[in-house]
Amino acid sequence: MPINLKRTNVKFSPDSSRVIARFLFTTDERAMGIIRLVLAMPEKEVPKALSQVLRDFSLRHRNISKIFEKHFNKITHLCSKLGVDPETINISQKILIGSYFTMEYSIDSAALFNPSIFEHPDQTEIEPDEKRVVFSFRATGEGHISSIVFRTGVMDDNNQLLIEPIGNMLEEAEHIRRHIYEKESFKSKLEEMNFHTLIPSDIILNKLNDKFTYGELRRCIEDVKKSLHLKADKELLFNEIIWLALSHYELEFSLDTNISERVIFPVSANERNGIEDARFVKFTDENDETTYYATYTAYDGVAILPKMLETKDFYHFKIRPIHGEIAQNKGMALFPRKVNGKYAMLCRIDGFNNYIAFSDNISIWREAKLLQEPRFPWEFVQIGNCGSPIETEEGWLVITHGVGAMREYVIGVSLFDLQNPEKEIGRLKSPLIVPNIEEREGYVPNVVYSCGSMIHNEDLIIPYAMSDYASTYATVNLKALLNELKISK
Q1: d(Cα 316, Cα 254) in Å, to the nearest integer?
Q2: Each residue's pLDDT tens digit, 454-482
Q3: Domains delineated in the chain
């Protein structure tokens, strides 16, 4: 029996007016030329030039002068090369110099896609049958660099979405490096990522304590480099170690930002080509405490590094890589609670089948078991998950994507046993969502894709991207869907 899928007219589209102020740098030589020119300006000309910049950009960014000063501080080492003490430069000159090392970046000018939906941590000031929700998106701008952005809204008792006002002044978080590394897991991750050099990593790691900070690691590397007197082409190991260390960090957003103004933009070297497909889930532990996790893929243009984001309030985020032999591919999705005392994760380690993994440590994943293979024609190219499993009385509901002829992506649904999620109870014989005539045209044609769904008021709510360009959501009656799954074994 066909399931009644209700598409909505809500559309989240790219918006080129949404910009952040990014640090801009070319070369030391050009940068020093800019510094010389500003410092050589007549004293009366500096405030005049600065006023023009502030007039043009102060209404587009929160505290733009503070951003300029921050960017000036990134290049103070070049002042020393010019024989100039940064402390002798007045504040107007610093801010003006900083403006030349700043650029606007339109974060979602190209696409706003691959959404997930989850319960907002703040459920105040809504009606009993309503739910405040958060949508996360993969936003893509110039150079196809991806970041994570958010929208909020309230689902009413009919699952109609009232989108809450969107903030106008986007902001990156303050980047904080205060992670404590554990030597054994750090060494294991180096080995897992197949870094091959002529120098063993122990030559550095053996000089560190069992736990160490980023600063201690950097100092140790500098000492070893001096003692070995290596040529530049022999320093690959040091670059690899720093590359991995930079993947651990924390972010903090200002308390006066709206969640729609917070942009999680690539920070570390291994993310410089983007943060892809964050699968958010509200996780509840044994003490009934909740934490929001998101697995995502960091991409530097060559290597893929699965990572995990953690937050409780969406102001403060911790980011770290996922370790283990199976942490090598895209599409990891965490279960919303432990299963039989262990963390559980969906993954696609071979690129075309669904797997399930269990672990005692949320950051370390060693083994996975085959869960699903393509069965129907619309899955023959590959099958994968579209976000974390959803717990129902009948079993774990898993939204899947299948790829068939002409590389058409469709969305399906499967059901797995609550106590033993390795056991498939049912799978829809036909896709639930197939790109229609409006959804199939876009940056990547014939693709519908999701990174996380939720249940509200007896409906399954599925946000999804349309051809890697814009996003929408659809609803389907949960009872009807479960009944269809139970007869679709």
Answers
A1: 9
A2: 999 999 999 999 999 999 999 999 999 99
A3: 5-14+107-174+248-486 (2.115.10.20), 19-106 (no CATH), 180-245 (no CATH)
